[in-house]
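Entry for the shared binder. Reason: the reviewer on the internal report wants the predicted structure included alongside the sequence.
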Amino acid sequence: MVAAPSTVIEEFAAGRIDLPTAVNSLRREFSDAGLSYEGLESMLRADASRLGISMSVVDELLQAVLPYVVSIQTQLRPPVDLTRVRQSARGIDVASMTRLREFQEGSVIKNRFELKSLVGRGGMGMVFRALDRRKLEANDPNPEVAVKILNASFQHHPDAFVALQREASKAQSLAHPNIVTVFDFDRDESAVFITMELLRGSSLEDVIRGTHSRGLERAAALPIIRGIAEGLGYAHRKGIVHSDLKPANIFVGDDGIPKILDFGIARAVPSMASGAPRDRFDAGTLGAYTEAYATEEMVEGADPSPADDIYAFGIIIHELLTGRHPFDGNTAAKARAAGLVAAPIRGLRRRERRALARALSFDRAPRPQDADEFLKQFFGATRQRNALIAATVVLAIAASYLWYRNYEQSGPAIPFDALPAETQQQVRSQIAEGDKAWAFYQHGIGDGLNDSLHYFAKAYELHEGDREAVRGLRRAADEMLKSHHADRQDLRDTARTLAESSEFLKTYPPVVDALGSI
């Protein structure tokens, strides 16, 4: 008789069985019960959470059983067109990837990234804290980065390379304080990896576990909830659905700011991707979602929707406030069949309880349709926000005519939706590149500030008065003027350059003032 996963993990954690015995039991469970790898992972994590066992034990077991899972799934896959794979991998010879490499502390990648310590391990990859020797050479005060490397056992998987590249690409287009910053995607012989900002703090999973099934107080949880919602809302506005939102994919920094991680299986919303070149690779085909956080629509293969992320977000909020999964770790289908209903959370306001209940709906339609809608329903118009609005009105009335004229000129004469689809996509692309360049500037990489100015100026040229372009132009101009404020001649030269770069900046008051300085 095959031992249940809960028994296996409990026995292994207690030291009563060794790793090979545990793996053999899990392999039989995987085969006999017809589980997916994600189902096995979800079951093990739910059991570990219930039994108070560290998630590092789950990671060790999953890593050990993964090669067997990959071998089974490879046998079940249809024949792979290696020509297409090579093309999608930008000319990389798949045959050369037979030289597998397993990295450890002390390894060096591309003669540049020195791996210092392992900080995380998942189904497909490992994340190391690493020293960037190029940054060190440039005397960068923050020379460390995080490096995510595909596991050696996954380097043969025909979709793994493409999935990691897409993760980097999507994350690079999402420059937001509540989304991890990804710097680059690269390859060193058989190893493919991405580099990203190094975060210091704890995963939300560890934060929740640290409450010992009690959850955080509302006052402590609300800033985390708002930060996640704002990052998620930015992704949704860009037409991207995360598709695997869970506590393990959210990091809370030492400063308390949450950041969303791992866009490895993020998918584009079909209705928002019509103007972009179609990506033949769909991360949804990997089936790499986590079942305890996935909607029935996702499992059934429906088109992605931001409302899928909202369901997972609702579960996360419930866990954050109570320390427990609202449906005891069950899938949406099992919870619906069992008639499970999330228990109301004491201490929440009526508005917050209603918004959370809608987010946890098993059907897509009643849920908030994206994170921005959830933000409005959950937080509403607070006193502080009302006061801010009132103050803004007063400032607007008191503003000078020049400011008013500049504001009027900055508004788009042609609505964005009225632009040709191709132009809309070009504007989106320039703004995304501008945000990415700004993120690089903040991390001291390359000529990010000038690049950011260039991209936003191009976006404004394509759609005169575009609010996002105006936001980027103001931000870049303010930063440039501030950096040259000490020398008046430099300040005037910078202002002149700014005025020449964009029609909007010619009448932007700080630029006008700097041009008039003596």
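Summary line for the report: The domain at 83-196 is CATH 3.30.200.20 (Phosphorylase Kinase; domain 1).
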